[in-house]
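Researcher: Checking consistency across runs. Here is Polysaccharide biosynthesis tyrosine autokinase again:
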Amino acid sequence: MSGQNQGTYTDDSIDLKQLFFMLLRQWKIIVACVVLALLLALLYLRITSPTYSVNGLIQVEDNKNMSTALLGDVANLMEVQSPAQTEVELIKSRFVLSKVIENLNLDISIQSLDNTFSNRLFKRTQYQTTHSPSQVIMSNSQGLALHIRQLKVPAYLLNQPLQLHFIDNENYELALPTGEIVKGRVGQPVAQMVSGGLLQLNINKALGVAGSNFSISQIALQTMVDRINAQLSAAEKGKLTGIISVNYTGSDKVLITNTLNEILKVYLEQNITRKSAESQNTLAFLDKQLPELKAQLETSENRFNQFREKNDTIDVTKESELLLTQNVELETRRIELEQKRAELGAKYTNDFPLMKEVTDQLAAIAQRSKELNQRLNRLPEVQRQYLQLYRDVQINTELYTSLLNSYQQLKIAKAGQIGNAHVVDPAILPLKPVQPKPLMVLILSIFLGGFGGVLLALLRNMLSSGVKDAENIEAQTSLPVYATLAHSPILDKFRSVRSKTLPLLALEDHEDLTLESLRSLRTVLYFAQKNAKNNVVLISGPAPEIGKSFICANLATILAQTGKIVLLIDADMRRGHMHKYFNADPGNGLADYLSGSKDLAARDIIQDTPVKGLSFVSKGSTPANPSELLLNPAFESFLHEISEQYDHVIIDSPPLLAVTDGIIISKYTGLNLLVARYGKTPIKEITLCMSRLQHSGQNVHGIVLNDVPQGALQSEGYSYTYKYRSKV
């Protein structure tokens, strides 16, 4: 493949099967994330206070006003707003909620500083706060009880936590943010001037509080109203039903139940007060008019009686009687309209049509009365005076009697006023919390944990720079991948047991999938060595811990099992551990032979192994200059000598990028193989090894991809090897 093709090779396709097996290989990460999410969910359920919800129903009756009645059927064609929408805003208004706060002392906050995170985690002590019209009580399951009847602070201390420390069960100290200390005694009200104003505190009872610390505060009215509104919701059920559903949430089920019932109570009281305002205004008008009318009646009766005593009996004509009757009727009608205008004035302005109509009627009555008075003035003097006095008595009597009847009726109506709203369902104590829902939280945690685990696995796979695709290696390097070796689960069992020896997989399980891949490598080497200059094979890699020693030991064993005579050389004189595979002595090895320190011959450093046909040369004593020893002509002579005695010579060398030993050895070998570990060895390290060998005049003949997960081996098409075990 050309260099151009190497640089332009890309593969942006997504293989779902490959993706699935990649996630399957990282199942431990996903399971760990799920377990962690479950633990966090359990911790959340443990420390989170449950949230309860209570509700009540209010029915608002739609009393059509006079304007709707005047419009008649036309009102049905217009968009009519439900009266419940107005009542919803009234329920949440500061006018209603401020009275609720005052009635239940909700502006007094008490918190125990001993109620720490660990206490909530282990549920050692349960704290509860009770608000009532007379006091606020904090108590716990250990017998502690603190009763505060009054707390009033200057404006600058509103919403500020004040530290309350009990010296004993009777005496306490209150620390202010300014550093001032207020001392007091249980049962004795405290009123003390502090910077900014007067502070009043009345703790009327305290039990088991010696040494305890509390944080108390007076919450500003608007702040408390906002808090209640954040937990309070009200809405009409359906459209134009007049049924309002009021909901209130909180962590204290007793407190939210009492608070919502108090809200409903205060709302109904203001509703009744608002609806009786019209009657109250009319009563105020009558309270002012009745004494005046009574005085006028008494005055008119006295004047009439004095006139009759002076003039005896007066002959009144029919015309005079008619004028008198009409005048009385007009005056009575005038007073009735005045009363009606007072009633309408409580609801409407002077520009309202009904108000204008009443005003016009009063003007017409005034004009008619003027005409009647002019006719009366034309009568004889005695008759005229008699009629005027008699008229005054009649009018004042009828007016006084009529207004007195109206006054009594309004008093009765006001006493029976119920407003246009009433509670259908009051709030009752909830049985179970609405949040958190344990089952939902656990299911969600499993889902989020699994999702997070998948994302972490994908991110880990994306950030991993190691090679994972044999085709990509071949495309990037133009070198053939001789074999892909699967990860063997048998080796995991041996790694879990600490031992001074390393297992030879070729002797442990003859049908392991990894050995099948090594056998395919053996076949490739058979054909590759036909064109090689000798039968010496160098197996190296870019970095440590990629499995090259494992491949050398097992490949040599497999070659020997076919009847070949094989020599395995551990040329890693720094950190070689090949002797552990054969439980051999590392002494008298390659380093000792090349250094000449022990006067050894080539046959003296060759050891037999338990595998028939396989001999082994250990690394020997650790030298100070391994690279210089490999440059010794004795090493070349040694390889030349043994290559004629063995069918295959396999050399395990140190990493190429760490030291130059492997590059020196490659000058004397017929085949040079590089080992790359799946997911660990970057493609850049492979190309860098190739470059270093090329600079020294040598080439890499092939690559072995090691430790490929079996799932990846099946999903990514590295080989077509199947498990085909012998039948027992």
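Researcher: Does this match what you'd expect to see?
Model: One thing to look at in this run: The radius of gyration is 53 Å.
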